[in-house]
């Protein structure tokens, strides 16, 4: 069985900040084909579907669809706020290489 992805407290806290001024929506983390290395992440606010894996913390939810789940096994979903920008990040142990810009990867 694959190890499900984890979400850090920092990522849940940032999601709570995003959702504070409106409708509370889960953060969807998915893997899709594309980019120069073959795969890319799709991270967006969305609604949960019946077959999604739901990860909960701090009153917030992160959802992963069943097709993306094997590609995210053991991954850590986090949030970083650095001089170059603030964004949700994924530390994925399944990635074998990534492109120079860091937006696409191969498994």
UniProtKB/TrEMBL annotation:
<dbReference type="InterPro" id="IPR000361">
    <property type="entry name" value="ATAP_core_dom"/>
</dbReference>
<dbReference type="InterPro" id="IPR017870">
    <property type="entry name" value="FeS_cluster_insertion_CS"/>
</dbReference>
<dbReference type="Pfam" id="PF01521">
    <property type="entry name" value="Fe-S_biosyn"/>
</dbReference>
<protein>
    <submittedName>
        <fullName>Iron-sulfur cluster assembly accessory protein</fullName>
    </submittedName>
</protein>
<feature type="domain" description="Core">
    <location>
        <begin position="6"/>
        <end position="102"/>
    </location>
</feature>
<dbReference type="GO" id="GO:0051539">
    <property type="term" value="F:4 iron, 4 sulfur cluster binding"/>
</dbReference>
<dbReference type="InterPro" id="IPR016092">
    <property type="entry name" value="ATAP"/>
</dbReference>
<dbReference type="GO" id="GO:0051537">
    <property type="term" value="F:2 iron, 2 sulfur cluster binding"/>
</dbReference>
<dbReference type="GO" id="GO:0005506">
    <property type="term" value="F:iron ion binding"/>
</dbReference>
<dbReference type="InterPro" id="IPR035903">
    <property type="entry name" value="HesB-like_dom_sf"/>
</dbReference>
<dbReference type="GO" id="GO:0016226">
    <property type="term" value="P:iron-sulfur cluster assembly"/>
</dbReference>
């Amino acid at each position: 069985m694959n190890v499900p992805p984890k979400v850090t407290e920092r990522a849940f806290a940032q999601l709570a900040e995003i959702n504070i001024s409106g409708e509370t929506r889960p953060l969807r983390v998915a893997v899709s084909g594309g980019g120069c290395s073959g795969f890319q992440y799709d991270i967006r606010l969305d609604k949960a579907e019946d077959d999604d894996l739901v990860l909960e913390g701090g009153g917030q939810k992160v959802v992963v669809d069943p097709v993306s789940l094997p590609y995210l096994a053991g991954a850590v979903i986090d949030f970083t706020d650095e001089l170059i920008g603030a964004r949700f990040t994924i530390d994925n142990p399944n990635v074998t290489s990534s492109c120079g810009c860091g937006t696409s990867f191969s498994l």
